[in-house]
Amino acid sequence: xxxxxxxxxxxxxxxxxxxxxxxxxxxxxxxxxxxxxxxxxxxxxxxxxxxxxxxxxxxxxxxxxxxxxxxxxxxxxxxxxxxxxxxxxxxxxxxxxxxxxxxxxxxxxxxxxxxxxxxxxxxxxxxxxxxxxxxxxxxxxxx
Length: 143
Hints:
mainly alpha, 5 helices
């Protein structure tokens, strides 16, 4: 009987060790996807692409908001992927969450849904990625 218990312990121990590795992979996949999306969006805003200018015009925001948002997005994405600085990461997660939910709310209040709701769905998707990255982060990235 001890032999069966030993086998059970080996399986359980190997399962426990495999779980953090899977969680770490999931964290990095979600975090890198989020960071890439935020950086690309921020760069587009800094370059003041025509589509970005149209978006802020539709919701009656001044065009200079693109520069402010672009800078904060790029800096926030860098903070998420660089090693160390757990407090800065917490601020970056909070900032990205408020930025994305604020974007969705701004478009909703301005009746700027587009035909398929893209202006609401995309920022809320990024907010969900942000929450997933925050929830999956390893201990060395927590306060």
